[in-house]
Amino acid sequence: MWKRFKDWYQHSNTKPTLSFPDQVVNLGGQNFSMRRAQQDDVDDLLEVERQCYAGTTPWDRAAFLSELKKTTQSLYVVLIFEDEIVAFIGCWFTKAESHVTNIAVVPKFQNFGIGRFLMLSMIQRAADLPSARLTLEVRVSNEPAKHLYHQLGFLDQNIKRSYYVVNHEDALNMMLPLGEEN
After folding, report:
1. I need a surface site. Which of 15, 73, 91, 139 has the fewest CB within 10 A?
2. pTM for the full model?
3. Are strands 133-139 and 98-105 parallel, antiparallel or unpaired?
């Protein structure tokens, strides 16, 4: 009897892993593989960060590993070109609020619509949940990213002072309304 109750309790309180099918996408006439990030990808994710952030890594190995284990509420997706991870995006999903935790595109692939494509993918995913809104933080100095987010419908919310650890830069908190509050 105890074993049956324990089995029922574990299965009834287990959320399914957020699914994400492997796929090939064509962006700017180039084919990219797109799949869920795996723990084996952490070194590559850190390298993408180094390329994007002048040799620094805003997220460390432990942070990525922790996030990649949370498969019921977080989804990290990588974009691969010729066997090299060139971009990634991470997002947390809840019905009340979904949140883009990070997005990065290596410099040689920037300005080709990859960031927009990844953001639109997560916006659609959050809307399908459905989540009431999608939020993110962006460096106040990152004008290209802020411009993209405004084009996608994000609204400025508030400033988070000294948000970024490495240089204590402020972050602009942004929000995209997706639907009714639950």
Report:
1. 15
2. 0.88
3. parallel
